[in-house]
Write a structure and sequence with these properties.
alpha/beta; homodimer; three-stranded mixed sheet; about 45% helix; about 350 residues
């Protein structure tokens, strides 16, 4: 679990005070900030002290192990070590911050740690400040990274942030399409978690609450307001807690193949896939289509048109490698249910 | 926040494995176990190693600072220090374990730390295993203690458990009346939090979920089953999270006076008070009375009959000292609303 959680409008203003006890002499706090904020007001509100540094992170693509390694090396070269790494942005920026924080103290490449419980050393102090709601990256014990051979996170007890600051004011200016795709990441998490075989009362309670909040935002409301930001930020947190104690399912397993091959961003990829999963999640997909229509969102079609057999095979391999996701969705006999042929047919529809 | 949370039926069986990395050479794990379990099967399942020790804690009365100090001194005399303190029981046992864990490293008396952020040193490793659901003590940053001059907790960032094990199997054999009173602690938390002025979306989400789970257990179901244990344990957790980010209200403020003077246990005291709070929480009290009736529970009446003026004054002083509770319930002008006379009249009804 994340040790310290602050939630509230304007809580970003407490960041200087929050970081103060974690500062070490001569070692900077490093703020990894989504490049979307370069030149925007939020960047000017970052409480810089001494040799603190802002790095605007290019998250046009999701984080790669090479990017993590390069950032950690740059900080080691410049400062030796740092007091902490603070991620300010969406899921990619937060995952990048967690991974760089870990690689400040763990030897080798971040690619060496893609898997479960391979990280053996605590990283430096890490804080996360989401500016988009939905991924659950603020509470997860992973950092999803694309490496030389796989898209897989550094899952470990050392991965979660030490502190998160949940300030719904920060999500108010997000572009509507992006905000929808990321919000749907949460909605899809919940459907996958609540219909999965790994469910228990803990993950169910969180999943149901997150789902209800998503519905209030995307189904019941007629427009976007401050209350939408409040609710979706809480939905993201609860959705992340739900999957931490269960697992995601078909949409995520298929979407990982897309992002590995085509670089499709996670939220968007989930939407593209979930849109075609009526056989697996009939009620969820029906409601999803309603939300897409009601919120005037465009879901790209035919993104797999023209791909080669080799391309499809790559995506199928990545997807079928996500064993726990398939087992959660389809049960222990999942390999009999989702064949390579079925999966190919699904990718061809996207 | 509690750093490590396990939830699941049978998860108590993982306790040996969970504690292993926290053992220090020659220093025991000390299990503070509710005396209710003395001679019962659960006591035999505690994973004792080396010089580990079980202490059956007498929680006929709620924890006192003198009891905390005496237990900590006993452990220092016998072992010098300990690897950790594990509380197994209801809210009293868990609060006792947290307080003893803190007093293994902090000088003086636990009475010196009754208040907010007075604890300056991390305690020893602390784990909590609830066997009754409802108090939220498993997630709180306080330990409610009766001291020489006040009933007030050691509220601090060092107070929460490092680990909790939420195993709903452990609550199956609790006596029905006690289980109800403790469950209602959660229900009352939620009503107080959700109608309070301190509410935000974070505490609201948790409060609503906990309230819904309480209703499923006490209103919708026709009998007690394993699912009741699952849901009430999750309700307790969520209810505790809700008040951690908001505050309780009138029932708790009045009930603290009862327990200070008469030693009335917290869950029961809350029920006795809430039963008469229709002016403050009309809908909640109506539903509470329905649950009392449906579950064939006896709420004691006239417990304040025959008390002296001095007794009433003591209770009124303790109650009015709980300023944040009154402010949450009645707003900034609470002192104009709840006069000593009104409070005396309320106590006389109990």
């Amino acid at each position: 679990m994340v040790g310290y959680v602050i939630y509230g409008r304007g809580s970003f203003n407490q960041l200087d005070e929050i970081l103060a006890p974690h500062r070490k002499p001569n070692l900077p706090m490093v703020f990894l900030v989504d490049h979307f904020f370069d030149g925007k007001a939020l960047a000017g509100r970052v409480p810089l002290r001494g040799n603190d540094k802002i790095i605007f992170a290019d998250v046009s693509y999701e984080p790669k192990t090479t990017q993590v390694d390069q950032l950690a090396q740059q900080l080691k070269d410049e400062f030796g070590s740092v007091s902490g790494v603070i991620g300010i942005g969406g899921g990619s920026t937060m995952d990048l911050a967690k991974a760089v924080g870990l690689m400040m103290t763990n030897p080798g490449s971040s690619a060496d740690y893609q898997g479960w419980d391979l990280v053996k050393q605590a990283g430096v102090y890490k804080a996360g400040i989401p500016t988009l709601s939905g991924t659950g990256a603020e509470v997860s014990r992973t950092t999803v990274l694309t490496g030389p051979t796989k898209k897989l996170g550094m899952n470990s007890d050392f991965t979660p942030f030490d502190q998160i600051v949940l300030d719904p004011e920060l999500t108010a200016d997000a572009p509507a399409n992006q905000r929808f795709y990321t919000g749907m990441d949460c909605y899809i998490h919940c459907i996958e978690s609540l219909t999965g075989t790994y469910l228990n009362e803990f993950s169910k309670s969180y999943g149901e609450k997150a789902l209800q909040l998503c519905r209030e935002v995307y189904v019941n409301k007629t427009g976007w307001d401050a209350d939408s930001d409040d609710k979706l930020m809480m939905a993201s947190y609860a959705g992340g807690m739900s999957i931490a104690y269960s697992q995601v399912g078909v949409a995520h397993a298929v979407s990982y193949g897309l992002s590995y091959l085509l670089g499709t961003k996670h939220g968007l990829g989930n939407c593209i896939v979930f849109d075609k999963l009526q056989d697996y999640y009939p009620e969820g997909v029906k409601e999803f289509k309603l939300m897409v229509e009601k919120n005037n969102i465009n879901i790209p079609q035919h993104i797999c048109a023209g791909l080669s057999d080799e391309d499809f095979d790559k995506m199928i391999n990545v997807s079928l490698g996500m064993k726990p996701l398939w087992e959660n969705a389809l049960g222990k006999d999942w390999e009999k249910i989702i064949t390579r042929e079925k999966l190919r047919a699904l990718y061809e529809q996207l």
